[in-house]
Amino acid sequence: MKQHKDTFEIIFFARGGQGAKTASELVAHAAVAEGKFVKAFPFFGPERSGAPTKMFLRISDQKLRTQEPVTDPDAVVVMDETVIGSQDIAKNLDEHEILVINSKRESEEIRKEIPHFKGRIYAIDANGIASRITGASNPNMVLVGQLLKITEIVSLESTAQVFRGVFLEKIGKDLTEKNIQAMEAGYDSF
Amino acid sequence: MEKITKNKTNVKALTGGYAVAEAWRQIEPDVMAVYPITPQTTIIETYAKMKADGKVATEIVQVESEHSAMSATIGASAAGARAVTASSSQGILYMAETLPVVSGLGLPIVMSVSSRALSAPLNIHGEHGDVMAVRDLGWVQIFAEQVQDAYDDTIIALKLAEEINAPVMPIMDGFHTSHTTERIEILDDEVVKKFVGERKVQQSLTDFENPTTFGTLALQNTFFEFKLDQEKVMQKAKIAYKKICGEFFKISGRKYSLFEAYQLEDATSVIVIMGATAGTAKDAIDKLRLKGKKVGLLSVKLFRPFPYGEIGKALSHISKIAVLDRAISFGAFPPLYQDIVSSVYHSHSRKPDLVSYIYGLGGRDTMQKDIEKVFQDLAEGEISSKIKYLT
Prior knowledge:
The complex is a heterodimer of chains A (about 190) and B (about 400).
Chain A: E1 7-15, H1 20-33, E2 37-42, E3 52-60, E4 75-78, E5 98-102, H2 107-111, E6 120-124, H3 126-134, H4 140-151, H5 156-188
Parallel strand pairs in A: 1-4, 4-5, 5-6
Antiparallel strand pairs in A: 1-3, 2-3
Helix pairs in contact in A: 1-4, 1-5, 3-4, 3-5, 4-5
Chain B: E1 11-15, H1 16-27, E2 31-34, H2 42-52, E3 59-62, H3 66-78, E4 83-87, H4 89-94, H5 99-105, E5 110-115, H6 129-133, E6 140-143, H7 147-164, E7 168-173, E8 181-185, H8 189-196, H9 223-252, E9 259-262, E10 269-273, H10 277-290, E11 295-300, E12 302-304, H11 308-314, E13 320-325, H12 335-345, E14 353-359, H13 368-379, E15 388-390
Parallel strand pairs in B: 2-3, 2-4, 4-5, 5-7, 6-7, 10-11, 10-13, 13-14, 14-15
Antiparallel strand pairs in B: 1-8, 6-12, 9-11
Helix pairs in contact in B: 1-2, 1-7, 7-9, 10-13, 11-12
């Protein structure tokens, strides 16, 4: 699936501490590095570790103006499948749009919980893949990789480059490269 | 994700808070006095990190309250330093006692504000309640729509403050602008430094050769004149702001003015608004224009001093006007509405239909469909002297 309209809109569902903010801002930074315009912002609720969170991301070739939250996304990324019960994750997703979800289960099993959604579900065991590569189970980089492969909103190369620029100093070379490998694994497991 | 991604044309992805800190890094003031506890903004923590990383030599003075933050800034500024601070919400109210001291002393202090709700109940999300509560204390107030404006306004505000010797408050919507990552263009450090130059100190507490009194006693025979002088400074501020925006255009290619007119020329129904939601309104207007509706927008940039004449003139051909305030004035019409009524009264030969809306209190989202509803109300003649609420 490719970008099919002026502005591509994504919602990231997660729980506090899973790295949804990092994931969405990483893609935003990569999009800007590629010359695009972005707006990335959280649902401004209470910030507590473990509480359901939402991040909104808009990417466009044109200047973005609206400040309203994303209500009709082109893609949804779910970092924690336990939010399904409390959040309407497939709201306004049509049959041409996509849902990327961190889960060990099969897509068709997940579909039973969101029967109104007719589009493609991409289920990926992001926790498992991440822990095998990085030793930690943060699912965000694997899911970013998967999202990039499916949507082609930005290139894997720019995203990896931005990641290095931001994190090399902070977390060191070893962890930086492992996280990028996790992103690549997510990209390749499509 | 607080580090910057950058390419050679100085295009970056930054939050509003980071962008303002970035402008401060380039300006590198002498003193920044801060109270770093909630409801402080990300501007201060970002700047403190820049200081810790050795990127700026600014003296960061950590104090025990916002009242002290502004008091320390006053002391530093009166001593001749380029002194700034940042605050928000309750913090601004806590320093309110010192705000008219700054303007009364004619100190060119800039305070970056991320505008947020006031307690109670506890909220701290975006709205204009805090800055509206201090709007008539002799501070210039400039509103930003996007992250780019928030960055640019900081640089313009500093130059303006030092040109007119009065304090300036560049304001962005809390969270909606301060916490949103957007693409912006940063000027080169040298360009910013050259643009703002050095502060030209006329009188200083530390000039022992020419001792000066700051904050003297002024009783019945002189106090009134002091206040009239301040009013003259505010009138000068409008002209200076326009001039500095012109100079800023030359270094940035970005145009700012007293207000932004969007699709106003041939419009019959118009929304007047300030801050971040102007962006949402523009998208809504584009949609309605496609359907052939003659709708437009006036987004106020310079709120204090209020450009009554210029705005009145810009609206003089409009027959239906909705004014959208992101603040509530209990028992009265909200602030922007009152100012627009005054503007229009003195410039319209025929009375237009005017209506007041209040939106976005405590961070409540305002959607394009809310804006469309306002235009629909105007079209259907749903206009009265009753305040409407976009809940």
